[in-house]
């Protein structure tokens, strides 16, 4: 590991003797370990210099992904505690709605996914918020694959009604749905358009708390604004 760390500090490569010295290893030991690391793909050797290999780069990407998830999870947990409601983070990636992280508590549980979130984007605030950020062709493509259908008696009834609702959504305004996905539940989603990525942070509440939904959504939006830079970096990883 010390050898890998030493190699990572040298963008233009480093020779075995220098790496052995930096890692505090005897040169024969360093040579043996470097050969093993090259064989396993963690390092590559060019003209006597050692560079990070593909296997080490995969580890780096995995670490970055874990850091991204940890950053988002920490933010969601903080918002959950301050607002007193489950908080969700979702993105639209590869033509699909992906709920990537949820922060809830036993006292304020998240909405159960009783109907596939990807297929029912027209019915929940997360999906409506993400679809509102797409262009006309993107929405049409999504609805061709996942047509509007009734999920509850309150679900939007047809494509055109949904599209009109999406088009009337104000930029960066919360998207609200009341019992359209799950009876007894109201939800609000805050749009996050960062570069080409459509993303959202959302909250849900029991319908008997509906009167505080918009106030909580505004508070969430205010707290998101204070961490927008961190979220932008996390989403782009």
What does this 3D model show about the protein?
- The chain has 237 residues and is of the alpha+beta class.
- 46% of the residues lie in helices and 20% in strands.
- It is built from 9 helices and 7 strands.
- The chain has helices spanning 2-8, 16-23, 27-39, 54-83, 125-132, 136-145, 159-168, 213-226, 228-236; strands at 43-46, 49-52, 87-93, 96-103, 175-178, 185-194, 197-206.
- It has a 5-stranded antiparallel β-sheet with strand order 4-3-7-6-5, with helices on both faces.
- Strand 1 and strand 2 (49-52) form a beta hairpin.
- The longest helix has 30 residues, at 54-83.
- The chain is elongated and about 75 Å long.
- The two termini are 24 Å apart.
- The relative contact order is 0.11.
- The mean pLDDT is 88.
- Residues 1-54 form the HTH iclR-type domain.
- GO terms for molecular function: DNA binding; DNA-binding transcription factor activity.
- InterPro entries: GAF-like_dom_sf, HTH_MetabolicPath_Reg, Tscrpt_reg_IclR_C, Tscrpt_reg_IclR_N, WH-like_DNA-bd_sf, WH_DNA-bd_sf.
Q: β content, as a range?
A: 15-25%
Low-confidence stretches: none
How many beta-strand runs? 7
Describe the largest sheet: 5 strands, antiparallel
| Radius of gyration, in angstroms, nearest whole number | 24 Å
- Tally the helices: 9
Give the CA-based shape. elongated
Order of helices and strands: HHHEEHEEHHHEEEHH
How far apart the termini lie comes to: 24 Å
Class derived from helix and strand content: alpha+beta
Percentage of residues in helical conformation = 40-55%
Give the strand order of the largest sheet, numbering strands 1, 2, ... along the chain. Answer: 4-3-7-6-5
Mean pLDDT: 88
């Amino acid at each position: 590991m010390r050898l890998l760390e030493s190699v990572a500090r040298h963008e233009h490569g480093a020779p075995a003797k220098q790496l052995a010295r930096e890692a505090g290893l005897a040169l024969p030991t360093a040579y043996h370990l470097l050969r093993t690391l090259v064989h396993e793909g963690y390092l590559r050797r060019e003209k006597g210099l050692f560079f990070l290999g593909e296997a080490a780069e995969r580890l780096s990407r995995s670490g970055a992904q874990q850091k991204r998830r940890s950053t988002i999870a920490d933010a969601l947990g903080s918002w959950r505690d301050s607002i007193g409601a489950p908080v969700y983070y979702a993105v639209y990636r590869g033509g699909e709605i992906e709920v990537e992280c949820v922060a809830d508590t036993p006292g304020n549980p998240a909405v159960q996914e009783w109907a596939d979130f990807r297929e029912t984007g027209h019915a929940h605030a997360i999906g409506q918020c993400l679809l509102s950020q797409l262009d006309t062709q993107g929405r049409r493509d999504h609805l061709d694959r996942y047509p509007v259908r009734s999920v509850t008696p309150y679900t939007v009834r047809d494509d055109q009604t949904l599209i009109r609702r999406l088009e009337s959504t104000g930029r960066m305004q919360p998207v609200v749905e009341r019992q359209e996905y799950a009876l007894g539940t109201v939800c609000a989603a805050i749009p996050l358009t960062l570069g080409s990525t459509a993303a959202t942070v959302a909250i849900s509440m029991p319908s008997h708390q509906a009167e505080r939904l918009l106030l909580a959504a505004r508070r969430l939006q205010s707290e998101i604004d204070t961490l927008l830079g961190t979220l932008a970096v996390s989403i782009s990883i």
